[in-house]
Amino acid sequence: MASGQRVARAVSMLLVMSLFGVAANPVAAADLVIGYVEMKDDARYTKRRTFARYLTQALGRPFFGAKTALKEVGFHGVKIGAGFKLQRITARDEDDLLARVVAGNDAGIGFFIADLPSRLLGRLAAANKDRDLLLFNISARDDGLRQQNCAGNLLHVIPNDAMAMDAMAQFLAMRRWRKILALVGPFPRDQALNGAFERAAKRFGLKIVASRPFVLSNDPRQRRQNNLALLTGKEDYDVVFVADGDGEFAREVPYATARPRPVVGAEGLAATAWHWAWDRHGAPQLEKRFERTAKRPMRDGDWAAWLSVKAIAEAVQRRKSTDFAVLRSHLLSPELVLDGFKGNRLNFRPWDRQLRQPILVGTHNRVIARAPIEGFLHKDNNLDTLGFDRRESHCHLAR
Amino acid sequence: MKLAFRHAVFAVVLTLVFGTEASAKGSGYLFVSSERDNAVAVLDPRSFKVIKNIPTGDRPRHLRFNADRSLIYAACGDGGSIDVIDVGKLEMVRRYEDIDDPEMFDFGPAGRFLYISLEDDSALGILDLTSGEMVAEIAVGGEPEGVLVTPDGKTAYVTSEVANLIHEIDIGERKIAANIVVGNRPRRMVLTPDGSQLWVSNELNGTVSVVDPGTRKIIATIEFAPRGFRPEQITPVGITMTDDGKTAFVGLGRANHVAVVDVGTRKVEKYILVGKRAWNGTLNRDNSRLFVVNGLSDDISIIDVQALKVIRSVPVGRVPHTVLIDD
To answer: Number of A:B CB contacts under 8 A?
Structure first.
């Protein structure tokens, strides 16, 4: 581009932007502030862990997702003169977290995006159950938060373990890779994933031919649990499923199995909420916007943070209000339509407030399938073939 | 004898495909942009074979003829250019560069300015085709998509997929005059020939909103329900209206059908099964044939508008986007 043209373009852009700025934001006072809470120390984001780029783990703090969304919602409040702001609260410890959420709520913040481990999120929800407050769960995947520990002020944007494992099981059933060798780690997250996979295997007709505990260790006395040749020997199977809550062990499994079989679960092929390589439904555009802000690919928590802001903005646009009760009722309504850039219209299940959504089943650089897989049908909404359907739910929240 | 028979067959095929206008003034060539081929394919009107691939910038999408149909403008999203193809020579003759991710565009009435949705910049760009300069960029909502300039040249409508809006832009003032909230992920628009209704497809809701441009209000919402498809598969994008303003054809995307809508009653009269992810359609000059581009089955379906039937489907390049007919 000639420099003269650049100048002309810059000048006209400035002119246009200033006109637009005035039109877009006449009453700055009515801005809606969205809280964003996280812990200063969070094991999920240690440098060592993000550096390793495990297939199912975060590459960094999801706050960038919320920031990306903020740039997309400039027009959603235009009719009522409302803009959107994020207030980031990085808590030092649990007490600090609880105190600052209460202070934020007292100052008028009704919606908080919560990037917290599940126990802490459960505690925060319980402590605030009588307040006008909604927490958007963007990273706690435990099924318990959707079942026996469900709470009316929790909206789960991140898919739970059951949804992810159902997606994986649908994929394996579609491929007819039905004989599974499960390798299961010792930690609670490993056990939770394994439990969810066992449930999914039963639902979709897979057979777990053997389930073997693994440990991360070089101790020769523990070789039955740390030597992959021994762990994957004997029985025949179609696929190795690795139940590994972080991915350090799982990373060693591909190309180290006794039989030439694919590895799924925490490595090889994983079921995720988002995948940078998804190339339908406008996904590359979102990925591009995110990477421009974050300088790294988008992962599940980033996507969930992004969608949380978008959900609030959608409610503001449709209801032409920033009132908490009005927005809350729209968010919980079956009329809610969210665009997650995964194809389907998304909204929250009324019984446990889990966001219905497709799950992407992918390798490190390719989405192999989008679940629900074709052929897995539900009488109302095929998305409800993933996770806890109404009749399986132990959670019955009223609107 | 054999030769005569062959000619007879050609004549039949021609009449089948182009109706009675087989001897119209154009070459009859079809031009198809393909997002993954970085080329515009030229198809012979008789054999429907690709006779030439005209290389373009990366990821060509929207195509439009200029007023006298001597040139084709192609928006090349990844290449960042608007490429101009000479219809007579079948080659690229000009390239407007440094245009950030152009998606859809429309001409002003005099043909001098091109109004382009710039997906990455979230702006409507105004390109002066004579000087080659981008004379203005008007900031709009995220992922601007469909662009429609009114015949009087005073107003441009732009959809924003992310903001769920149609922006009404005052071209003289170069600013947004109004924002019309429509459904989710609005994509493409058509204006009825009398200018009284603006139709917009809402891809995510699976509907078409009918907007009164005067009051800027939605006056009707058209829903679609082809048999055997789930609501989430109904993802309307392209809308093509006949010149008489009586019939609209809506490409239903993942539902692999084209809906035939009576514009007067706003009722769906028929669903025509086409290929996978049908988005864009184009009518030939006498409106006897509709060409529908199927992005995920890499082909186009040719529909007899009178009979409302697919008479042929033709393989084209990878992820075809738009088809034009030089008839």
So the answer is: 92
Cβ-based burial of B128 (10 A; exposed 0-12, middle 13-18, buried ≥19)? middle
Instruction: For chain B, list residues whose CB is within 8 angstroms of any CB belonging to chain A.
Output: 97-98, 119-120, 123, 132-143, 160-165, 173-176, 179, 181, 183-185, 204-205, 230-232, 235, 254
Q: What is the mean pLDDT of chain A?
A: 92
Which of A13, A72, A343 lies at the smallest CB-CB distance from B162? A72
Chain B residues close to A293, C-beta within 8 Å? none
| Three-state secondary-structure class, residue A210 | strand
Nearest CA in chain B to A381: B230
- pLDDT in the model for residue A399: 58
Give the pLDDT confidence score for residue A217 in this predicted structure. Answer: 87
CATH number of A162-272: 3.40.50.2300
Question: If DSSP states are collapsed to H, E and C, what string results for A195-211?
Answer: HHHHHHHHHHCCEEEEE
∠A200-A202-A205 over CA atoms, to 5°? 100
Cβ pair B30, B45 in contact under 8 A:
yes
Domain boundaries, chain A: 31-159+275-357, 162-272
Contact between A75 and B161 using a beta-carbon 8 Å cutoff: no
B200's tokens: 């917009």
The pLDDT tens digits for B106-152 are 999 989 999 999 988 899 999 999 999 999 999 999 999 999 999 99
pLDDT of residue A3: 43
Interface predicted TM-score of the whole assembly (ipTM), two decimals = 0.84
In CATH terms, are A31-159+275-357 and A162-272 the same topology?
Answer: yes
Q: Where does the pLDDT of residue B2 fall: very low under 50, low under 70, confident under 90, or very high at 90 and above?
A: very low
- Domain covering A31-159+275-357, topology: Rossmann fold (3.40.50)
